[in-house]
C-alpha cells in the first residue's frame, strides 16, 4: 500500500466558509476520513491529507470543490450537508472508474437556476445534459 501525504491551502481565507465546509464539530471532515480511509489534519485553511495516494487525491479534489460551493450566494454562505459529502465521494469514485467520460458530466456541465447550480453526479444525467446543450 502506497501512503501519500498532500498539503492543500484553500483560498480565500474565510472562517465562515471553512466552518460550513468542515461542519459542526468537524463532522464533514470526519465523514471524509471514514469513507476514504485517510487522515485529515487542519489548521485554519491549511489541510494535510495522509493515506492511499488515490484517496488523498480524491479527498483534495472534493475539499476544493466543496469549498467553491460555499461561496456566498446573495450574501449567504451555503452550508455543506452530509448528503453533499456523500455525493461528492460517489462522484469521485465514478470519475476514477471512467476517466475518459469526465467532459460529459461533473465539472464540464453546470446548469444555473434561480435556486442554485445543478451538476450531474453520474454519467447518465451527464449524457442527457450534453444532448440538450
UniProtKB/TrEMBL annotation:
GO cellular component terms, semicolon-separated: cytosol
InterPro entries membership: PhoH2-like
Organism from which the protein derives: Kluyvera cryocrescens
Family: Belongs to the PhoH family.
Lineage, top ranks: Bacteria, Pseudomonadati, Pseudomonadota, Gammaproteobacteria, Enterobacterales
Name the UniProt record assigns to this protein: PhoH-like protein
Alphabetized GO MF terms: ATP binding
Amino acid at each position: 500500500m502506497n501512503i501519500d501525504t498532500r498539503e492543500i491551502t484553500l483560498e480565500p481565507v474565510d472562517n465562515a466558509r471553512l466552518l460550513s465546509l468542515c461542519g459542526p464539530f468537524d463532522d464533514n471532515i470526519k465523514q471524509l476520513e471514514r469513507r476514504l480511509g485517510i487522515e485529515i489534519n487542519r489548521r485554519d485553511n491549511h489541510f494535510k491529507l495522509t493515506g492511499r495516494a488515490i484517496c488523498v487525491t480524491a479527498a483534495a479534489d472534493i475539499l476544493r470543490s466543496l469549498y467553491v460551493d460555499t461561496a456566498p450566494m446573495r450574501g449567504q454562505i451555503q452550508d455543506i450537508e452530509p448528503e453533499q459529502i456523500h455525493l461528492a465521494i460517489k462522484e469521485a469514485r465514478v470519475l476514477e472508474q471512467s476517466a475518459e467520460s469526465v467532459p460529459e458530466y461533473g465539472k464540464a456541465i453546470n446548469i444555473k437556476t434561480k435556486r442554485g447550480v445543478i451538476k450531474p453526479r453520474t454519467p447518465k444525467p451527464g449524457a442527457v445534459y450534453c444532448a440538450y446543450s
